[in-house]
Amino acid sequence: MLSLICQKNAKILPQLLCNVRCASKSHKPKTAIIMLNMGGPQTVDQVGDYLHRIMTDRDMIQLPVQSKLGPWIASRRTEEVKKKYQEIGGGSPIYRWTDLQGKLLTEALDQMLPESAPHKHYIAFRYVPPFTDDALQAMEADGVERAVIFSQYPQYSCATTGSSLNAIADFYKDKKQPNIKFSLIERWGTNELLATVFADRIKEKLKLFDGSVRDDVMIMFTAHSLPLKAVSRGDTYPHEIAASVSATMSKLQVPNPHRLVWQSKVGPLPWLQPYTDDAIKSYAKKGVKHMILVPIAFVNEHIETLHELDIEYCDEVAKEAGVKQIERAAAPNDHPTFIAAMADVVSKHLTTGPSVSRQFLSRCPHCVSARCQSSKEFYKKLCNYIECSKEM
Ligand code: FES
Question: What span is annotated as the signal peptide, if there is one (predicted)?
Answer without folding.
Answer: none
